[in-house]
Amino acid sequence: MGTHPNGPSTVLGGEKETFLSDWIDANLDVLGPTVKETFDGKLPFLFKVLSVNKALSIQAHPNKSHATVLHKERPEIYKDPNHKPEMAIALTPFEGLCGFRPLTEIQKFVNTVPEFAEVIGQDAANALASGSDSLALKKAFAALMTSNPDIVSQQLNQLLERLREKKSSGHDISDQCGDLVLRLNSQFPGDVGCFCIYFLNHIVLQPGEAMFLGPNLPHAYLAGGNECYKLKIT
Known about the structure:
Elements: E1 10-11, E2 18-19, H1 20-26, H2 33-38, E3 45-52, H3 64-73, E4 86-90, E5 94-100, H4 103-112, H5 114-120, H6 122-130, H7 134-145, H8 149-168, H9 178-187, H10 193-196, E6 200-205, E7 210-213, E8 219-233
Antiparallel strand pairs: 1-2, 3-8, 4-7, 4-8, 5-6, 5-8
């Protein structure tokens, strides 16, 4: 529910349906003086109720200044000049990825998941192992997202085989996020996103809990049916 150009709500009543955006333009006082002044007479909020039966893509939204530039340069893709911070509120257990893990956790996965280390490459793995700043993280994540698809597929198959053998033998695979890897691959076989879980925080929300997704923060919604409100600035 909202006024986003890709799917504005409609106002019922009168002789014909009216887009909420058009109705607000004709009735600006409904926004109140603070919202009207701050957001130039526009309603900046978008309210959604999500049912996530399958993992959604990993994404990140620009900050306000960057969003303004992108809208000006590529309006066919970036439909408005606003940023897109989000607040996800769980109605029942809800699962997602949100932001980068602490560097120590990522370093642990480099050391314990050889397939992950192989995909990001030796240089990036060494930078993570010895680094303690955002440059090492940036280099490693960029290496993953631009890695050769053939290498991703080969290493993911090796990881899946190893995890399945370990699980069938009764061993715990949670230390390598094994069950999540198996589930994501079943939905998107061979996808590089299966390795992203070693970079991003895996969060499970209980009813009433929430997570905030600020600008430039990578995130993805993984699972949960009919149980998440999402409020975002459009």
